[in-house]
Amino acid sequence: MPIPIILDCDPGTDDALALFLAFASPELELRAITVAGGNVGLAHTLANALALTALAQAPTPVHPGADRPLLGAFRSAHDIHGANGIGGVRLPPGGPPAPGLAVDVIRRVLRESADPVTLVGIGPATNLALALMAEPALCARVAEIVLMTGAWGEGNITPAAEFNAWSDPEALAVLLRCERPVTLATLDLTAQALVTPKRLSAWRQRDGGACLRAACDIQDSVPASVRFAQRGAPLHDPCAIAWLLRPGLFTTRPCHVEVDLGPGPSRGRTVIDRWGRRGAAPNARVLETLDADAFFGVLADRLAALP
Ligand code: BDR
Ligand code: CA
User: Which is the CATH superfamily of the domain at 3-305?
Assistant: First the structure.
């Protein structure tokens, strides 16, 4: 039976590849795509989600959501993702958004589904948190929450914090406290999914359609990371999808995780207690290691299978 999911995103170069991976995966039943502002403003992230969905000829409805975090000001990451969020790559425009705002659609899908639904978040957690705050009883309809967020080591937007966690830490705190199983693909995990020039040129040599070409062009736009001595760029968001497709590619650890909500330089930091030093019960499963070659193998096969 395919896993029913709602995919909440902020495309985003790596979100784009995560969407393609989800579209190409029969293991998943994509009930809705909900979009927040994040990597760039909502106007761009929504247009990108619609364009990517149309390019993949996917029937999934795409809904707009929050254009800012629960508290505080919106800040983008256009230095990594380009002014349009997908590295300046121009895609044919998609269709119109489906009716309904993310906060309402997430609740409706949870309420109407015969089976519990998995929430996958690969952007700021605002839409997911708003839905569960508006109707907490629906937490019981959530099978699992899978997030690309946080880091047990250093951050990528501040020394302390990872971008998604830092963008809306209060929203992440809501999800960590909702008492449903939470799985985290952190920066330390996604560091193992490094797109090197060799891996990218292997994708380009595959037979494929417009989606494969778009994925290559989008990935080509991502600057090699100073964190990895410019050897490549980590591919964050597809790791969260890959966990649902191939959990055997990962090792995991139950941990207590708390997000720093203070106003200081650690705001948005995820304090991940890998060694149980605080004595608190685990509230998350943290993905620790990834079989990167197998992950990139699955990703390339799936990208090549799209239109
Ligand atoms: C996360 O932040 C965004 O820039 C990426 O799309 C990813 O979701 C990585 O820190
Ligand atoms: Ca993202």
Answer: Ribonucleoside hydrolase-like (3.90.245.10)
Q: Is the pLDDT of residue 81 over 90?
A: no
Peptide bond into 12 cis (omega under 30): yes
Measured in Å, residue 288 CA sits from the centre of ligand 2 at 19
Q: Provide the mean pLDDT of the chain.
A: 97
Across residues 215-238, what is the average pLDDT?
94
Nearest residue (CA) to ligand 1, atom 4 = 39
49 CA to middle of ligand 1, Å?
A: 15
Indicate whether 62 pLDDT > 90. Answer: yes
**pLDDT at residue 80 is higher than 90:** no
Return the ligand 1 atom nearest residue 10 CA: 6
- Are the C-beta atoms of 18 and 122 separated by less than 8 Å? yes
Q: Is 236 a catalytic residue?
A: yes
pTM given for the model: 0.98
- 258 Cβ closer than 6 Å to some ligand 1 atom: no
| Catalytic site residue from 44, 63, 81, 236 | 236
CB proximity list for 254: less than 8 A, separation 6 or greater: 282, 284, 285, 286
Domain boundaries, the chain: 3-305
Does the Cβ of 77 fall within 6 Å of ligand 1?
yes
Spatial distance between the Cα atoms of 170 and 72, rounded to a whole number of angstroms: 10
Nearest-angstrom CA–CA distance, 68 and 48: 17
- Segments of the chain assigned E as strands: 3-9, 28-35, 62-64, 117-121, 142-148, 182-185, 194-195, 233-234, 250-259, 270-273, 284-290
pLDDT at 82: 85
122 lines ligand 1 (CB under 6 A): yes
Report the distance separating Cα 112 and Cα 110, nearest Å: 6
